[in-house]
Amino acid sequence: AGAAPLENWLIPDMLIRRIVVTIDNLSRDRVALKLRPLKPVPGAFVVDGGEGSYTISPTNFPRYGAALTVLQAIDEQALVALYFRWYPLFQKAYRDLGYPGESFNNRVIEVLDHLIGTPNIAAPIALVKPKVYYEFADPALENASYGRRLLWRIGADNREALVAKLIAIRGRIVTAGVAA
Fold first, then answer.
1. How is residue 141 annotated by DSSP?
2. Contact between residue 146 and residue 31 where contact means Cβ atoms under 8 Å apart
3. Is 180 helix (H, G, I), strand (E, B) or coil?
């Protein structure tokens, strides 16, 4: 897709640290939004219903289209080559987070496996709005990791495309890691 479209999404300040923090948190319940490496998708989150009976609106899903188009255009081999080229910086940032004896690459694979294993749930997805933000009505969904909640929010087709890309990236990382 070229550099310009990706640059439109990236937050370049402390990019390595932002990537490491976000990856580390995707399988946890919260992500440090102030440290995410990507700008948020434009537009407001759209729901259907009212009076305490809400669902994620299918009109919400196209908001993620531009970001997914850029992601789909990224060559997995080039991405993984760049990842391993800069791996010492990723590993240092991971150590600085408080994991001195652990491998960031192992964490990346663990998080990819977690996201790839996100179960499909049937639409429409019920929501509640106990305060300012919408939450999943099903406590099991609401208590899932941030990464899985995000994959459910973007819609089944987008989730399927994103998971396919994550599978391809994981395969390249594992293959390159063995060869490295």
1. H
2. yes
3. coil
**Cβ contacts of 2-11, under 8 Å, gap ≥ 24:** 5/69, 5/70, 5/73, 6/70, 6/74, 8/39, 8/70, 9/38, 9/39, 9/67, 9/70, 10/37, 10/38, 10/39, 11/36, 11/37, 11/38, 11/39
DSSP E strand stretches across the chain: 47-50, 53-56, 126-128, 135-136
Per-residue pLDDT of the chain (180 residues; tens, 9 = 90+): 555 577 777 777 899 999 999 999 999 999 888 888 888 888 999 999 988 799 999 999 999 988 898 889 889 999 999 999 999 999 999 999 999 999 999 999 999 999 999 999 999 999 999 988 899 999 999 999 999 999 999 999 999 999 999 999 999 999 987 654
- What's the whole-model pTM score? 0.91
